[in-house]
Amino acid sequence: MSEYSEQEKFKPVHTNKVDGSPYSGVIGWIDNRLPIFRIFKHEYLDFQVPKTLNYFWSFGGILMLCLIFLIITGLALGMHYKPSADEAFDSVEKIMRDVNFGWLIRYAHMNLASFFFIAVYLHIFRSLYYGSYKEPRQLMWLLGITIFFLMIATAFLGYTLPWGQMSYWGATVITNLFSAIPLIGEGIVTWLWGDYSVGDAALNRFYVLHWLIAFLIVGIVVFHVIALHIVGSNNPSGIEPKDTRDTVSFSPFTTSKDLVGMLIFILIFVAVMMFAPNYLGHPDNYIPANPMVTPAHIVPEWYFLPFYAILRAIPDKLMGVIAMVSSIAILGLLPWLDFSKVRSSVFRPIWKQCVFLFVLDFFLLMYVGAMPAEGIYLVLGRLGTIYWFAFFLVLAPLVSRYEKPLPMPQSINEYMDWKKKGKIKTFNFT
Amino acid sequence: MIKIFRTFLIVFFFLTQNSFSEVNKTDLIKVNWPFDGFFGKFDKASLQRGFQVYKEVCASCHSMRHLSYRNLGEKGGPEFSKEEVKAIASQFEVQDGPNQDGEMFTRTALPSDKFVKPYSNSNAARAANGGAYPPDMSVLVKARKGGANYVYSVLMGYADEIPSNITLEEGVYFNKYMTGNKIRMPKPINDGSVEYTDGTNASEEQISKDVVAFLTWAAEPHLEARKRTGFKSIIYLLILTILGFIIKKKIWSNIETKV
């Protein structure tokens, strides 16, 4: 064997990649060794986004903002809160009264949870309406639904922490749902409680899990955002951008627009937090938890009401729990149930109506969830539940099969042209 | 379709506004409280009188375990002077200890002490009240739907004429605004229940208003600071939003996006 072929057997390696930064000086020196600056430049300054994005696309940034502030305020609260059945309620009152700006931090955390859900519902609506869940964004959509599940879990756990009447009874009702599982249900509930009833042990672990899940959300959000930067943003036209006539760079265009969206959102949030901080809560949660007294109506937080209505619409406990969980999980199947090639509802006259009805259904179920499960409310709840599942299992495949989409422009640039000429009708939310 | 949808949403929210608050069939008495609204502030004199009502009427049964005597002198509250707070606290005895010999002892209360409770525990409270538990009043106003108006309505809701369809057991009283129209608390406030030193006419209404104002402050001691900060932040945010919007307009002015 010659020396030459001996060389051929090996591939060159490049373990040392210190090079290639677009920056010089100290930033360049760091960036050559840890490419955070070039990643930031690439993904947040030069990143191209469709120029047709309307304010519905601000909710991603708004949700990020909510998450960050929830964690900051949560950290501050955690420094004074005591997760014990005897002390939890009093420690929250102490935060409200004696901790410097404790009232502000606590009200902010409490209301941010609600506003987080307002934003996430609008974010999900945006995806439904403009078909953001479709190829190639299915994984983003699945990650999003995972985040939504975790949000539900952490919001529920967080609501138990003040240890008021609704905290206690809400926790009792929801953890008891696990007892619907045949054979092992009762055992699981006892295991979850760490006791034979909701009490000190449960509260302690709820506190730990509330933190844990909050950080799990952060982790999945990172994946969600990385995936976004691979597949790119969808847009109201649902057409992929082709060249720079269709796009703007993330900064300063998207940043300035998101800033406006965020400021309006913060404005509304501050108005509610400062002038009606308890409007979205339940007064019973200012009564310390009492295992001997059951509240007249046990109702969850407003953002769980639609799913609570689905739970109660089914007469059987186990089936009710399955229906409730699958009412959210079924969202994950949507990219495959709706196989229409057209993304945006702007060009899908029938699907558009289905989505609007779905929104209506959401509010109907929310209303029913707040009412006692009897009479007309039970009927409405069942109708609402039927539509909820039919939307995914029946309407999505049927509509995508038989609907005739409107004529579509070839590019985003042309879409804007058509819109100017009034050839496309959709709501203005620029 | 979109129009119908919009109309439906508006109608929906209008309807639910009423139905979400399913307190009672009876509408609560609506009082024009000075602490309501964007510029709401407590009336200090009213809070001071309200404390007097609490001390002389309510405190014999209702505790306020989250409040300390020092709170009475803090900003945004009844704002008693330092001396007055000391004097108020010194009217009470608290148990302290153990001392160096391991004995518990009683001493005069200090401003830093919590409000002294009427009963040592909830069983004692029940035993003394025919089985009914007088709730702690520190967050009472926030713990009831309707808040201050509700508490005021209950105080004013006793009537001599009991509707014929209601039968009252021993130790139960008729009240227009309680759930089921029944309450275990005898009418606490009448004309002249307390004697005001500042010359205010101690009518039933006045006394009730004063004590409800006091309870509202007790439940939300930072209400004034909250509304003040809220107002300032909204002005600030409004300006910032307008500026942000102008900046956005300017940045986007070269780009065609009339979509």
Can you give me a brief rundown of this structure?
With 430 residues, chain A is an all-alpha fold. Helices cover 63% and strands 1% of the residues of chain A.
How would you describe the overall organization of this protein?
- The complex is a heterodimer of chains A (430) and B (259).
- Chain A has 430 residues and is mainly α.
- Chain A contains 17 helices and two strands.
- Chain A has helices at 3-8, 25-33, 36-45, 59-78, 88-97, 102-130, 138-160, 165-176, 185-193, 200-231, 250-275, 305-313, 317-329, 334-337, 349-370, 375-402, 412-420; strands at residues 48-50, 247-249.
- Chain A has a two-stranded antiparallel sheet with strand order 1-2.
- In chain A, α4 (59-78) runs antiparallel to α6 and α12 packs across α16.
- The termini of chain A are far apart.
- Chain B is mainly α.
- Chain B has a domain at 25-67 and 115-236: Cytochrome c-like domain (Cytochrome Bc1 Complex, Chain D, domain 2).
- Chain B has helices at 2-19, 44-56, 82-89, 122-128, 147-156, 204-219, 223-252, and strands spanning 93-96, 105-108, 173-174, 182-183.
- In chain B, α2 crosses α6 (204-219).
CATH class bucket of the domain at 25-67 and 115-236 in chain B: Mainly Alpha
Work out the helix count of chain B: 7
> How confident overall, as mean pLDDT of chain A?
94
| Helical stretch tally of chain A | 17
**CATH homologous superfamily identity of the domain at 25-67 and 115-236 in chain B:** Cytochrome c-like domain
Cα(first) to Cα(last) distance of chain B is 21 Å
What percent of residues of chain B are in strands?
under 5%
- By CATH reckoning, the class of the largest domain in chain A would read Mainly Alpha
Shape category of chain B:
globular
According to CATH, the fold-level topology of the largest domain in chain A is Cytochrome Bc1 Complex, Chain C
- Which band does the percent of strand residues of chain A land in? under 5%
CATH architecture of the largest domain in chain A: Up-down Bundle
Low-confidence stretches of chain B: 20-24
Briefly note the CATH topology name of the domain at 25-67 and 115-236 in chain B.
Cytochrome Bc1 Complex, Chain D, domain 2
CATH architecture of the domain at 25-67 and 115-236 in chain B: Orthogonal Bundle
Task: Find the count of extended strands of chain A (DSSP E, 2+ residues).
Answer: 2
Q: Which structural class do the helices and strands of chain A define? A: mainly alpha
Helix percent of chain A reads: 55-70%
